[in-house]
Specification:
By secondary structure, the chain is an alpha/beta fold. The protein has a five-stranded parallel sheet with strand order 2-1-3-4-5, sandwiched between helices. Helix 2 (31-44) runs parallel beside helix 5 and helix 3 (57-70) runs parallel beside helix 4 (86-94). The longest helix is centred in the C-terminal third of the chain and has 16 residues, at 133-148. It has one domain: Dehydroquinase, class II (Rossmann fold, 3-Layer(aba) Sandwich), CATH 3.40.50.9100. The radius of gyration is 14 Å and the shape is globular. It has five helices and five strands. Helix 4 (86-94) links the parallel strand 3 and strand 4 (99-103). It binds ligand CA2.
């Protein structure tokens, strides 16, 4: 599959701090290490990744719009914007590529304000609670979905 579109892996606010703070919640792995692991898992499934992080909501919206015609699927850890962003919800609704909501922790087992996901109301599915492994499971789901749909 030489022309296979990449899987976009988009990360929201504060995820650049991974590995340096709150290891009891988020583990000791860094975002750079997660990127390397995602690239390896995607390659096993005939895909590449475009891996990005931003603390800016509008930048995530722009990347989702870009993914609309450039990506086979999107793995999205929108961080705290998961629970607040109508803009991300609407951007996901506006694109045809599948978006997989992904979390290191299990928001359902945490504070009440994390129990609502506006991203989840628009996403294809959710993978949460497995630490960095959540990303690898999401890459697998993304690649399987993409391989099912022609032209992706
Ligand atoms: O579990 C996840 O992946 C979250 O998306 C992480 C977000 C949180 O707001 C969501 O409810 C669940 C927070 C990301 C902040 O990451 C940090 C990493 C290290 C130190 C401080 C924050």
């Amino acid at each position: 599959m030489p022309d296979a579109k990449p899987i976009y892996v988009l990360n929201g606010p504060n995820l650049n701090l991974l590995g340096s703070r709150e290891p009891e919640i988020y583990g000791r792995v860094t975002l750079a290490e997660i990127e390397t692991a995602c690239a390896a898992r995607a390659a096993q499934m005939g895909r590449s990744v475009v891996f990005r992080q931003s603390n800016v909501e509008g930048e995530l919206v722009n990347w989702l719009q870009e993914a609309s015609d450039k990506a086979a699927a999107v793995v999205l850890n929108a961080g705290a914007y998961t629970h607040t962003s109508v803009a991300l919800h609407d951007a996901i609704k506006a694109i045809a590529v599948p978006v997989i909501e992904t979390h290191l922790s299990n928001p359902a087992a945490r504070e009440d304000f994390r129990h609502v996901s506006l991203v989840g109301k628009a996403a294809k599915g959710v993978i949460a609670g497995f630490g960095a492994t959540s990303y690898l499971l999401a890459i697998e789901a993304a690649a399987l979905l993409a391989n099912e749909s022609k032209g992706a």
